[in-house]
Input
Amino acid sequence: MTAGTFEAAAPAALTPNAGGAEVASGGRLRWGFTDAVTVTWRNLVAYTRIPDAIFFSSIQPIMFVLLFRYVFGGAIQIPGTTYVNYLIAGVYVQTVMFGCVSTSVGLADDLHKGLIERFRALPMARSAVLAGRTTADALRNVLVLVIITAVGYLVGFRVQTNFGLFLCGLLLVLFFAYALGWAFAIIGLSASNSESAQLAAFPLLFPLTFASSAFVTTASMPGWLQAFAKNQPVSQVVDACRQLMLGNSPTHVWTPNSIWISLLWAVGILAVFAPLAVWRYRKVS
Output
C-alpha cells in the first residue's frame, strides 16, 4: 500500500483538518465511560450471585441502629433532639465507610486471582476497572441507606426538615463514600491478599469513625481530642447530614459550614486518590 493510499484510508477523525485531536479525545472519553459501565454491571451481577454477602451486609447496619438506640440511647442526652435522631446520621456514615472495605477486598481478590490480568488483555480503559468497582459499591450503598432509614423510622427516627433536604443528606453521604472508595482501592491494590486488605483498612476506619461526632458530641471528649474530632472529614459529613435532616432547634444549632466543608473534603479526597489509584493499578497490572 502506497503512502498516498494509506493517507486516503486513514479515518477522518484522526486527521488534523478534521479536528482529530478533539474527536479522538472525545472517543477515548466515551470508550472509558462505556467500559466503566460494563465493569459496574459485572460487579452488580456478581453481588446478586452471593446472597449471603448481601444478607450479612444488610444485617450489620440494623444491628448498629438497635445497639446504639437501646443500649446507649438512654444514657446519652443530646440538646435539642432525641438521641435516635442524632444517631442515624452517624450510622449512615459509619456503614458506608465500612462498606468501602469491600472495595479494597474485592480488588485484592481480583488481582491475586488473575482477573486483573484478563482485564489487561482486553482493549479497555485501564481506569474502568477501578471506576466500575467504586461505582458498583456506591450503588450497593443505596440499598444499605434505605434499610437504615426504614429501621430508624421503626425505632423513632424522624426527619425534621423536609424530604428534599433529607435526600440531599443521603446524596452527600453517598458522594463521600464514593470518594473514599478510591482511597480504599489503593489499599486493595497494595495488599498481598484480600485478608491483608481487610486488616489494613480497619486501622484507618476506627479512629475516623469513633473519634468523631458520629455517636457522641465532641464536647464530651477530652480537650486534646476535640480539635481532631471536630475537624476531621467524618465529623464534617455527619454534622452536614444532620443539618440537612434535622435543621436547627432552639437549643442546638448545627454548623451550616459543615455542608460546604464536607463537600470540599469529598472532592479533595477524590481529586487526590483517584489518580493515585489509577497509577497504582497501572503499576501492579
Summary: Residues 1-23 have pLDDT under 50 and may be disordered.
